[in-house]
Amino acid sequence: MDLSFTNDDRAFRDDVRQWLRANIPYTERPRDFRGARAWDMAWQRTQFDAGFGGIAWPRDYGGQGLPLVRQLIWYEEYARAGGPDIGCGFVGINHGGPLIARGSEEQKRRHLPRILAGEEVWCQGFSEPGAGSDLAAITTRGRVSGDEVVVNGQKIWTSFAHMADFQELLIRTDPDSAGHRGLSWIICDMHGPGITVRPIVSMDGLAEFCEVFYDDVRIPLDNVVGELGEGWSVAMSTLGFERGTGFMKLQTELSVTLEQLIDDAVGLGVAGQPGVATQLGDLRADVLAMRAMTYATVSTAARTDVPGPEGSMIKLFYADLAQRIHRARMEIIDVDGLDRSGRFADDIGEYLYSYASTIGGGTSEVQRDIIGERVLGLPRNR
To answer: Where in the numbering of this chain does the Acyl-CoA dehydrogenase/oxidase N-terminal domain appear (predicted)?
Structure first.
């Protein structure tokens, strides 16, 4: 394991820091979905044109072909600079790994450069009303008919489906199968006939999540990633990238959030209150532990190209730590202090959203099962 930075790495960090300082957009992201998509994709295009899109992706598909540690450096500097959220580019950018690792040459050349250039938005079609974290229970079916797959069923909690061009869709293509067997991972054109998208409006008035219905949607067999029936394996690759390298930016952002909390506590004169310094010190130690885990994951992934189940340890640790840090901000700064800090609305929103971290990308209970079975080698939980 090599966790050190070279002189070239440090020079790259300086370049990234200077570029971000000069180019981060400070205009407000529109709230309507068309305006939000245009804003997100314009920023992605800016990064791509400057050579910072797909830093660790292969050059043949629009990336820079640089070591994964350079991607880590980018995320660290991006978080410190206060770069905007990736928005509707999340699935395409952070889940591009399965296409790189398992996609056909035609699939890679068609989609990967366009994802990096901000020309395609993707969404994920995994969860269903009766199959949230238990993907083995999905019932959306794909019937093979000639050179097509005819899909019928429903997905839910699909982020950015109303903005997306394509979807990574997990379906059951073997009608006699059950559990993990008989699933297929297929590229679905979200503009095709038979697809109905219904946005789910949350209490903040935004509609990031959607329901998606499929009524005899015909998808070419050439859109299957991997082979028919290999969907579970490809889906685990998808989630491995999301829980491992895809979480790097969120982890670095969390460390910035904690340091802001410490600065605000000092500025408001509450850092010296009994127990507060100890609480902040414990949280800082946990942030450093998470950083070490991330570096170890990057070191491993740089050798294997595909993140392993160890990514679930980071996902589990991050989800708990995010809740504790945002809860600490509510407790330590209190309502009056939050109001004086000028970030009241953002702080409350981040605190409430932190509870989603134990659900999105697989619940914490699922992560514990994965760690027990695939990392520790314990017997299956069922």
So the answer is: 6-119
CATH class of the domain comprising 122-229: mainly beta
Whether 142 contacts 218, CB under 8 Å? no
3-state SS track over 247-267: HHHHHHHHHHHHHHHHHHHHH
Name residues whose C-beta falls within 8 Å of residue 138's C-beta, 6 or more positions apart in sequence: 126, 128, 131, 170, 171, 172, 183
Give the pLDDT band of residue 239 (cuts 50, 70, 90). low
DSSP string for 96-138: HHHHHHHS-HHHHHHHHHHHHTT---EEEE--BTTBSS-GGG-
120 is catalytic: no
pLDDT per residue over 164-202, tens digit each?
999 999 999 998 888 888 999 999 999 999 999 999 987
List beta partners, residue 167: 123, 188
Element (H, E) at 154: strand 148-155
Residue 243 has a pLDDT of: 47
Report the alpha-carbon distance of residue 371 to residue 319 in Å, rounded.
Answer: 15
Domain extents in the chain: 7-85, 122-229, 244-376
What mean pLDDT is reported for the chain? 85
Taking CA atoms, 264 is separated from 79, 119, 273, 334, in Å, by 18, 40, 13, 11
244-376 fold: Butyryl-CoA Dehydrogenase, subunit A; domain 3 (1.20.140)
C-alpha to C-alpha distance for 158 and 24, rounded to whole angstroms: 28
* Residue among 120, 128, 242, 253 flagged as catalytic: 242
Residue 92 · residue 122 · CB < 8 Å: yes
Q: Is the pLDDT of residue 45 over 50?
A: yes
